[in-house]
Amino acid sequence: MEFKDFVQNASKEQLTALGTLGMWMQEKVPVYCTCPSKCNQSCQLAKELNEALMLAGQRLQSM
User: Fold this and answer.
1) pTM for this predicted structure
2) Cα–Cα distance, 62 to 32 (Å, whole number)
Protein backbone atom coordinates (compact mmCIF):
# COMPACT_ATOMS: atom_id res chain seq x y z
CA MET A 1 0.00 0.00 0.00
CA GLU A 2 1.27 3.44 -0.84
CA PHE A 3 1.74 5.89 2.01
CA LYS A 4 -0.59 8.45 0.43
CA ASP A 5 -3.30 5.83 -0.04
CA PHE A 6 -3.07 4.94 3.63
CA VAL A 7 -3.29 8.60 4.64
CA GLN A 8 -6.30 9.18 2.38
CA ASN A 9 -8.19 6.45 4.24
CA ALA A 10 -6.77 7.00 7.73
CA SER A 11 -8.95 7.65 10.75
CA LYS A 12 -8.55 10.79 12.85
CA GLU A 13 -6.59 8.79 15.43
CA GLN A 14 -4.21 7.49 12.75
CA LEU A 15 -3.79 10.98 11.29
CA THR A 16 -2.95 12.31 14.74
CA ALA A 17 -0.29 9.63 15.14
CA LEU A 18 1.14 10.44 11.72
CA GLY A 19 1.15 14.13 12.57
CA THR A 20 3.08 13.42 15.75
CA LEU A 21 5.57 11.32 13.79
CA GLY A 22 5.95 14.08 11.21
CA MET A 23 6.68 16.70 13.85
CA TRP A 24 9.19 14.41 15.55
CA MET A 25 10.94 13.75 12.24
CA GLN A 26 11.17 17.46 11.45
CA GLU A 27 12.88 18.03 14.77
CA LYS A 28 15.27 15.07 14.46
CA VAL A 29 16.32 15.15 10.79
CA PRO A 30 18.69 18.12 11.22
CA VAL A 31 20.30 16.37 14.20
CA TYR A 32 20.62 12.84 12.82
CA CYS A 33 20.72 13.26 9.05
CA THR A 34 24.12 14.85 8.62
CA CYS A 35 25.58 12.74 5.81
CA PRO A 36 26.66 14.61 2.65
CA SER A 37 24.31 12.55 0.44
CA LYS A 38 21.21 14.17 2.05
CA CYS A 39 19.30 10.91 1.75
CA ASN A 40 16.24 12.50 3.35
CA GLN A 41 15.99 14.69 0.23
CA SER A 42 17.18 12.28 -2.46
CA CYS A 43 15.70 8.95 -1.36
CA GLN A 44 12.36 8.23 -3.05
CA LEU A 45 11.03 6.41 0.01
CA ALA A 46 11.87 9.35 2.28
CA LYS A 47 10.26 11.79 -0.17
CA GLU A 48 7.05 9.75 -0.31
CA LEU A 49 6.93 9.44 3.47
CA ASN A 50 7.40 13.20 3.88
CA GLU A 51 4.64 13.89 1.33
CA ALA A 52 2.29 11.49 3.11
CA LEU A 53 3.02 13.08 6.48
CA MET A 54 2.31 16.53 5.04
CA LEU A 55 -0.95 15.24 3.59
CA ALA A 56 -1.87 13.81 6.99
CA GLY A 57 -1.33 17.24 8.54
CA GLN A 58 -3.51 18.87 5.88
CA ARG A 59 -6.28 16.33 6.43
CA LEU A 60 -6.14 16.89 10.19
CA GLN A 61 -6.45 20.65 9.76
CA SER A 62 -9.51 20.23 7.55
CA MET A 63 -11.35 18.01 10.08
Assistant:
1) 0.70
2) 31
